[in-house]
Amino acid sequence: MSRWRRSLPGNAIYYTMFALIFVIVFVPIVLVVFGAFKTRTELFQTTPLALPSSFLNFSNFKLAYTQGDMLRGLWNTTIIAFITLCGNAILGTMTAYILNRFQFKLKKVVYGLFLVAMIIPAYTTEIARFQIIHSIGMYDALSAPILIYIGTDIMQIYIYMQFLEKISSQLDESAMLDGATYVRIFRSIIFPLLLPATATLAILKSVTVMNDVYIPFLYMPSKELVTMSTALMKFVGARGSDLSALCAGIVLVLIPSAAVYIAFQRFIFKGLMDGAVKG
């Protein structure tokens, strides 16, 4: 009994925090889903948490699909995400392999630059980045967000390096004795063994790319280059907004990323845990 009393304050704090996080995360989603099935009149005349009169009202989804050009947005988003994930995996694994296996004078400096890049807010360097993208002729093209997304970050390098710590360097030495070059070692040994970490990071990166609004909206203003996230901007204007269609569009945007995350969440947690524990 005394043990239960001692643990009661801790349990109360735990469940309170859990309830608070649940409210913060799921209540906005519920509001958006309810709003997607409401008419414009119903949306303004009822409270946000009020149930819609019918969950069979798909007119907002039809409007979001047609006026928002969601099919084109899905196609552009898929192209950006696919090329980004391929390039990101290659650059990330190569960078981690070099930092883990090779010794050179500027190794700590290179690693420190990745840390500095993570600390500095990206918006503070936006003007310089925009000028670079514009000067090399990538502005208003799919290549602009791809080039930005494709860069590696410290989280990727850290996870890959933790996986590399579990891969014995004797494999590299044995392959070199057989005449294999560093490129062959990376291609035939290292990269295949890093596939669990690559799959984990690819899922997380794909969700980030699909949900990003800022970069596609800034670097691809053309209507032909709309993505699923920037398509939502068509329902928001200075003179008025169609909130019902906007809610329906948000639901359509959330479906692909949520489906990817839910389907592969066990691989995400497994990959993170495997990378966090050294063998």
From TrEMBL:
Entry-linked Gene3D superfamilies: MetI-like
Q: Which residues cross the membrane?
A: 12-37, 79-99, 111-132, 144-164, 185-204, 243-264
| Tagged with keyword Transmembrane | yes
Can the keyword Signal be found in this entry's annotation? no
Classification via InterPro entries: MetI-like (IPR000515), MetI-like_sf (IPR035906)
So which domain of life are we looking at?
Bacteria
Location in or out of the cell: Cell membrane
Q: Which keywords accompany this UniProt record?
A: Cell membrane, Membrane, Transmembrane, Transmembrane helix, Transport
Q: Mind telling me which CDD domains this protein's record contains?
A: TM_PBP2
**PANTHER family on file:** ABC TRANSPORTER PERMEASE PROTEIN MG189-RELATED-RELATED, LACTOSE TRANSPORT SYSTEM PERMEASE PROTEIN LACG
For this entry, the protein name equals Carbohydrate ABC transporter permease
Q: Source organism lineage? A: Bacteria, Bacillati, Bacillota, Bacilli, Bacillales
